[in-house]
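Model: You mentioned two targets. I'll fold them one after the other.
Researcher: Yes, keep them separate.
Model: Target one:
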Amino acid sequence: MSIKSPIESLLFISNKPLSVKQLAQIFNCKNEEILMIMDELTEKYNNENSGIHILRHKSWTSGGTKFQMSTNPVNASVVGEFIKEEMSGELTKPSLETLTIIAYRGPISKTEIEQIRGVNCSLILKNLLLRGLVEVREDKEKMADYYNITEKFLRHLGVSKVEELPDYERLSGSEVIDEMLLGETNHEFVIH
């Protein structure tokens, strides 16, 4: 089975650039194979008729190459207008649920958020990041990204710290959620 299709899927859902090293580890192959596939994908997408382009980033800190899907620069005005409308609209119920989880349990990894919600949260997290309501920090030791709410989110709610949220103490320390994250129970948890 070719790994080109799965790589393409990962680039699509990722909210940050993926390194050649990461992709090689995921697919247990050599960096050269990843670079060859990325050249093919770049050739497929980076043309004037494609709405998607693949960006190649050279990391100055690690010296490695990273790739990320992006919109075609010629579509910048229509994409910008759409994002402006999206960002000024109301949050969806799934976005509010995700934001609530981050507020009460943050910093929390994407995997833990998805364990609690039971669905992929990539696009929701990307939207919340674009709105400036959450921030992400990479934990290099655990090789995972951790999400937390921002000062902007707290200001929007009219509170100065997360502990001022309703029922913060009870909900942030919920044993049901802790058990769920540790895989010790089959409880269903719904945020109202």
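Model: Target two:
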Amino acid sequence: MAIIRAAYKKSGFKVKLIYMPWSRAEIWVKSGKFDILPDTWLSEKRKAYLLYSNPYATNRIKFIKKKGDKFKFHGLNSLEGKKIGTIRGYQYDNEFMNSNLFVREETSSFIQNIRKLIHRRLDLVIADEIVAKVYITKKYPSLLNYIDFTEKALAEKKLYVTCGKKNKNSKTIIESFNNGLKFIKENGTYGKIMGKYQILH
């Protein structure tokens, strides 16, 4: 989110972040009630009603485990028998969603999944590495003492800012982000932000 704030600051925009279930946020951005949906993955379905920015990061989709768990992800077969926390409304890898090797347990929020993991009600949580690290660091930093990320990723996805096409200012909103993103990459702000959260770019 720090990248998005910095990019929009160049155009004089202030970003107010509101946390809610992903499915509801997507509906409200689609309708124009909210202006932007950060951390969106590209899909042909969404392109029909969302206007996409240039990609601002490449995210790794990883599994989060309880600290001390020796589990190592090395393909879907390594997940056999596991109970894995997912988030309602998120778009996951098709192979992961169609596999019968493990159980996917759906909730409405990421932090709910993390709490279930810590209390051993889940074996793993699947998450966007960047989104998860930034969110936990800013909102619940103490939880970092209880979790680890797998070294290997399930997949890599580019992240975008999107705006509902029904929003009359959609083109301006996305163009402002693109211009700001270019600016903060050139002046070094982008690299400093990514380094703060120990994220490769």
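Researcher: Noted. Anything on target two?
Model: The longest helix spans residues 170-186.
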